[in-house]
Amino acid sequence: MNIIVAIKVVADDQDIQVAADGSLDMSKAKPVVSAYDLNAIEAAAKLAEANEGSKVCAITVGPSSIDDSKLKKNILARGVDELFMVADDSASDLDSYATAEVLAAEIAKVGGYDLVLCGDGSADNYAQQVDVQLACRLDVPSVNGAVSIEPATSSFTVTRRLEDVSEVVEVPAPCVIAVTPEIALPRIPGMRDILKAGKKPMNVEPAASPCENVTEVVEVKAPKQAARKLEVKNASDDGAIEWFSAALKSALQ
Predict the structure, then answer these.
(1) 207: exposed, middle or buried (C-beta count within 10 Å: 0-12, 13-18, 19+)?
(2) pLDDT at 216 over 90
(3) Res. 241 pLDDT band, cuts 50 70 90
(4) DSSP characters over 25-92
């Protein structure tokens, strides 16, 4: 079974600084794999381990800064066999449409595949659009919200966790499946895994053509910090539960 994992490299949120006007300074933030994509990588690795002869390839696109030795080894140390990366400053801050377009081109270079896995969303924008747009470009079925995947002869049985029910669907291969964090807990690579990762294939190249977004980002700012009201009620007081319920409802509106 040939498995492809589409991942996004984002700025480490622990290193992002917020200016006085609310703008975000990411100049000192190191590149890391989006947290949701770590679950997808682990799901792919476990599927490969359970099916002898399988191969896992990771694909990603981003600015030239993602061509980072430590980052690439970290990806390959998680059960990934080969990495395909488009690292080009023209690919900075791509929207879902442009990202899917570049990833589809990379998948064509990887070759035949049975399954493409994506994370539930990216840790920065969390648009949840790349998986469906990628499936559209590849002309294959798409399923999201997956909490488990069981391979069959020419299909996959997928359990989806919806808001109030679990759903089991069968999707023919090849297909694109977006997984939720609960599908697999990401492993912590050991030193031996990292050393082995340095010997695995890493294919890094610039963008074949200029990457153009179809959406325009007007502004990105951190939310203003609101002062806490520090209202405390005793649960045994008359009307305390009703007051809490009303306050919670108001905050969620």
Answers:
(1) middle
(2) no
(3) confident
(4) E-TTPPEEE-HHHHHHHHHHHHHHHHSTT-EEEEEEEE-GGG--HHHHHHHHTTT--EEEEEE-GGGT
Which superfamily does CATH assign the domain made up of 2-222 to? HUPs (3.40.50.620)
Domain limits, the chain: 2-222
Torsion over CA: 88, 90, 95, 97 (sign): negative
pLDDT beyond 90 at 163: no
DSSP conformational letter for 154? S
CA distances 18 to 9, 79, 125, 164, 222, Å, are: 20, 35, 17, 37, 7
H or E segment to which residue 123 belongs: none
Q: Which residue has the tokens 């590149």?
A: 31
What is the per-residue pLDDT across 9-38, written as a single tens digit (0 to 9) for each? 998 888 888 887 888 877 788 889 999 999
Sign of CA dihedral 160, 128, 140, 74: negative
| Percent composition of the chain: helix, strand, coil (DSSP 3-state, to 5) | 30, 25, 40
Q: Looking at the predicted structure, is the pLDDT value of residue 188 above 80?
A: yes
Count of Cβ atoms closer than 10 Å to residue 220 Cβ: 11
Contact 91, 206 (CB under 8 A): no
Per the prediction, the chain carries an average pLDDT of: 90
Bridge partners for 242 per DSSP: none
Q: Is the pLDDT of residue 85 over 70?
A: yes
Please say whether the beta carbons of 132 and 99 come within 8 A. Answer: no
